[in-house]
Amino acid sequence: MRWNLAYRTLFHDRGKLIAGLVRVILSAMVLDRINESATLRAIGLSERELLSILAFQSALVASIGIAIGVVITVTLQTPLSTPRATIEIPLMLSIGCGVLIFAICLFAAGLPSLRVRRIDPYTALQS
Q1: What CA–CA distance (Å, rounded) separates 27 from 124?
Q2: Rounded CA gap, 19 and 108, in Å?
Q3: Which residues contact 80 (CB under 8 A, 6 or more apart)?
Q4: Residues 6 or more apart from 25 whose CB is under 8 A from it?
Q5: pTM, whole model, 2 decimals?
Q6: What is the four-CA torsion angle of 125, 58, 18, 115, rounded to 10 degrees?
């Protein structure tokens, strides 16, 4: 029972760390390409189309990250389990974590996009 609690605590803290890293990576992806986004806006791309591009990119990153996490979890679950302390992750918990991570990624991509929306395309093209 103690191992199960330690396991949950360990992976809960790692989950927070991973969510923070995902947010930083997605923010960097969006902010690094402000000039490209401004150029697309200058040639007539609507805000909605730009947001859909950013959402697609973050969904792709989230899907790849979730797939890697599932593979690592399934791979390590059996070797790390012992008869006295089995590691059992309920299916609904795994699905819920995947949905939560996906939502965090979409939210993380949405925040820097607000900054991209405020930039005047002409000003961004001058720099």
Answers
A1: 18
A2: 9
A3: 87
A4: 61
A5: 0.68
A6: 30
User: Are 105 and 26 within 8 A, CB to CB?
Assistant: yes
Token digits for 87? 């590691």
CA separation (Å) from 5 to 9, 12, 16, 28, 45?
6, 10, 17, 35, 50
- What pLDDT is stored for residue 94 in this prediction? 83
Of the candidates 10, 3, 2, 1, the residue with the CA atom closest to the CA atom of residue 73: 10
Structural tokens at position 99: 């949905």
Q: Which residues contact 104 (CB under 8 A, 6 or more apart)?
A: 19, 22, 23, 62
Residue 30 tokens read as: 């969006």
Calculate mean pLDDT across residues 88-113. 80
Task: Supply the pLDDT for residue 75.
Answer: 86
